[in-house]
Write a structure and sequence with these properties.
This protein is mostly helical. It has helices at 4-25, 30-34, 41-53, 69-75, 78-93, 100-108, 114-126, 131-143, 148-162, 165-178, 181-197, 201-211, 213-216, 220-230, 233-243, 250-264, 273-284, 297-307, 311-323, 328-345, 349-355, 366-382, 386-400, 410-422, 430-442, 447-464, 467-480, 485-501, 507-519, 523-536, 540-554, 572-582, 587-594, 598-612, 617-632; strands at 57-60, 63-66. A two-stranded antiparallel sheet has the order 1-2.
């Protein structure tokens, strides 16, 4: 049985231990302390209340403090302080909140652990105006013997991991001019990665050349990405040779496969490229969010798979990367956007829109912002929503000023070509299309990258009713068809579509092309081809067969964003027709987009006038405007 003296000694020890933890870690409450002190939370809470009543402990900036902190820390042994430091850092490693007050208290109590300086670097980025955090960071860096350049490099590395490109470039700017050769090289690699994400591949390549092939190591994979993206195949192969073949770590093996897969995509139909890139995703996957990726191997694989007419394969690889959180937040946004694009080209428009609901375009870098708005424009085009297309087009224009197109932008650029033609603004993208054609030519017109781009060129020419614009894209598809079944399908579909517009086609050729397009994932294009053929064909029986084909292809997919409103007097189909009437489109144009005959459109308009009690066309338009606006809210 404990004596009164022993009990008093135990209470004094518990009080001293509690005060020492408060002095060293500035905890939030008793719950936080109970994770580090082997005492019940309620007992700690009661002791804290007593200490606060005595004026020994107080709350400041949402943390428990003691005015005797300096004395308490000075009286503690090094072993006691190391134990408390270790407990706090272990708590952070297991998911505990690394609040700025705690980090500052740890630094001021003499903790100089490497883990702490990384936490302080992150805190300084998240709280740039917190002078106490900045002071603690400088203190720990000084104790660890770090130079200002080394600290700046560490902060740039953290910014790269967070996807803060502007911070990376700002922090590395002075290092590229003034630092030691070793730090200068590391800063150049970080800055080059940021330039890749910002679509400035020429700047990235210049920095990789500064580092040099003898020091590039596994970072040569990103130099390959930069060179290929600009059309420099020979340079890319030289960078790949500089990497060597030693893939001892998972990172080295994964990046080697990524570089090899990208280069393989430039040969023939790109056979083998997807296997290598899939292997890269699997190898790098366990590294997860801790891996900083200027470009994602999963994103490269998706671009190639979509370009080969395999959107379902692209979706599978992207989902694998998203499950692994490969590359962290910035890579995840790109994965989600490309995944949504896969859904869109397969005609799964509703699912595509849901996939990107949580993405804030303001948080995207320039490269992915262009992808986002081109995707939104593509969704609007497939919903025949002209006003949404115009709004997206304004955003696209704002993101393309000064933009240098790369190989990895051909997907959004293709959609921009079609939307620009639809809005009679093709001149806005003409210089970008010319740049893309040059890049493809410099790479030897790799069909895995060029086929879908040229298909968009064909579609844009149809929209613009420009035979001259059609010829180079049609010829490129015909040439690519010798290497790629996908390009051959697109070339045949393009010829069939041209015959449809000339009213020179038959049901058999339309059905063959439409089903082949759907098999390649082009469900929306497939149904549109059949629907347009039905409207153009003079023979009623053949036209009905083609209309049925369009419905059959599209029956499993939803094409309209407009939901049935309980307050609306119109059906869902009438809302679709009403929107297009408001856009000023004629019965024939509306029928082409909705796979119905002009006569059926006329019937819909007549029913709407009757239901809405509109005595004139102007009155009908006024009432339609109010109802469609309500449906869009």
């Amino acid at each position: 049985m404990s004596t009164p003296r022993q009990l008093a000694t135990d209470r004094d020890f518990a009080r001293r231990t509690l005060l020492l933890h408060i002095a060293v870690t500035a905890p939030y409450d008793a719950a936080e302390l109970s994770r580090r002190i082997s005492r019940p939370q309620q007992a700690i809470h009661e002791d804290i209340e007593t200490l606060m009543d005595e004026g020994v402990v107080h709350l400041y900036d949402a943390a428990l403090r003691t005015s005797s902190a300096a004395r308490i820390i000075a009286e503690a042994s090094r072993e006691e302080l190391r134990d408390i430091h270790g407990q706090a850092l272990a708590d952070f490693a297991s998911g505990g909140a690394a609040r700025p007050a705690v980090l500052v208290a740890l630094a001021e109590s003499g903790c100089d652990d490497e883990a702490l300086i990384h936490l302080l670097v992150r805190a300084a980025s998240e709280h740039p105006d917190d002078a106490a955090v900045a002071g603690a960071l400088s203190l720990v860096a000084r104790v660890r013997g770090m130079s200002d350049a080394e600290l700046r490099l560490m902060r740039a590395t953290d910014a790269a991991a967070r996807g803060s490109l502007d911070s990376v470039l700002s922090l590395t700017e002075t290092l590229l001019a003034d630092a030691s050769p070793e730090i200068q090289a590391r800063a150049a690699l970080l800055a080059a990665g940021a330039h890749i994400q910002a679509n400035r591949l020429d700047r990235a390549e210049a920095l990789y050349r500064h580092v040099g092939p003898e020091r590039i190591g596994i970072h040569g994979a990103w130099a390959v990405v930069a060179a290929v993206g600009r059309g420099g195949r020979a340079e890319a192969e030289a960078w790949r040779a500089a990497m060597g073949a030693d893939g001892l770590t998972s990172l080295a093996a994964g990046l080697t496969d990524a570089a090899d897969g990208l280069l393989r995509s430039l040969d023939g139909n790109g056979d083998g490229a997807l296997d290598m890139l899939a292997r890269s995703v699997s190898t790098l996957g366990p590294l997860g969010a801790g891996l900083t990726l200027p470009e994602s191997p999963a994103a490269l694989a998706a671009l190639i798979a979509i370009g080969r007419g395999e959107p379902a394969t692209a979706e599978t690889l992207l989902e694998r990367a998203m499950r692994a959180d490969l590359g962290g937040g910035s890579a995840q946004a790109r994965h989600v956007l490309l995944s949504s694009w896969c859904l869109m080209v397969q005609g799964r428009v509703d699912a595509a829109e849901r996939r990107i609901e949580q993405i804030d375009p303001r948080a995207l870098d320039d490269r992915d912002a262009l992808l986002y708005w081109s995707l939104q424009a593509g969704l609007a085009r497939r919903r025949t929503d002209l006003s949404a297309m115009r709004a997206c087009w304004r955003e696209i224009r704002s993101h393309t000023f000064g933009l240098r197109i790369t190989l990895y932008d051909l997907l959004p650029l293709g959609e921009m070509m079609v939307v620009g033609a639809r809005l009679r603004d093709s001149a806005r993208v003409e210089h970008m299309v010319n740049d893309a054609m040059r890049i493809l030519a410099d790479l030897g017109d790799p069909v895995a990258w060029s086929a879908l781009f040229h298909w968009h060129g064909v579609q844009a020419a149809f929209q613009a009713e420009s035979p001259a614009a059609l010829i180079p894209h049609a010829n490129a598809l015909a040439h690519g068809g010798a290497q790629s079944p996908y390009a051959a399908t697109l070339a045949t579909a393009g010829r069939t579509w041209l015959d449809v517009l000339r009213r020179e086609t038959d049901f058999a050729s339309v059905e063959s092309s439409a089903r082949a397009l759907a098999k390649c994932g082009h469900v929306w294009d497939s149904a549109r081809l059949a629907g347009q053929a039905a409207l153009q064909h003079p023979d009623r029986e053949s036209a009905l067969s083609m209309m049925q084909l369009a419905r059959e292809i599209s029956k499993d997919h939803s094409w309209s964003a407009m939901s049935e409103q309980s307050t609306s007097l119109l059906t869902r189909r009438e809302l679709e027709v009403g929107r297009l009437v408001l856009d000023g489109q004629g019965y024939r144009a509306i029928g082409e987009q909705l796979f119905i005959s002009p006569k059926t459109v006329e019937h819909h308009v007549a029913r709407m006038r009757s239901r809405l009690g509109a005595s004139s066309r102007s009155e009908l338009l006024e009432k339609l405007h109010d109802i469609v606006a309500e449906a869009d809210e």
